[in-house]
Write a structure and sequence with these properties.
202 residues, Arc Repressor Mutant, subunit A, Tetracycline Repressor, domain 2, 2 domains, 12 helices, elongated
Length: 202
Amino acid sequence: MQTNNTTEQQIIAAARKIFVQKGLAGARMQDIADEAGINKAMLHYYYRSKDRLFEIVFEEAVGQLLSGVNDIFQADMTPREKIVAAVDHYITSLGRAPYLPLFVVHEISQNPERILQRFASTTLLPNIGLFLKELAVEMEQGRMRKVDPWQLMVSLISMCVFPFVGKPLLQAVFQINDKTFAKMMEERKHFITDFVLTSLEP
């Protein structure tokens, strides 16, 4: 017989899948119940609202992505070492939760205010400002080529995230399966860091 914990895990897994497919607005409690293999009454017994399930799934996904990023930015490492560690962390985290970028993009297109509020309320947002200052110091002291630190960070994050957003298209165009895609993402860690660090040589 299933434990309550197992049932809750099934519900969260089902909600995650349905929210990724349909977003908050398009998802129905019946969809989640069907995906979890339970009836709607049982779903309401555990979670009374779709919004509450959304909060749980969103917080879980964001936590998986952002956990550890602040540790990297605050660590006693050089900016170059932080770039390597951050790229490894982002791609590893997205590999474990590949639905997250599409989840966020879908919600931004449907209800940007809601998603921004949720990001603003999380305590896990990394202190990017601190890292940008460190990059600026490196550039001013001639240890890195001068570029806009903000543009550098946007480019760095984009290079990590885009393959997961465009995964279905990339797989279709390059005729690759999930295993090959995962291998390419592991290789991409080294490609991005080499590409970025080479471009920053003074």
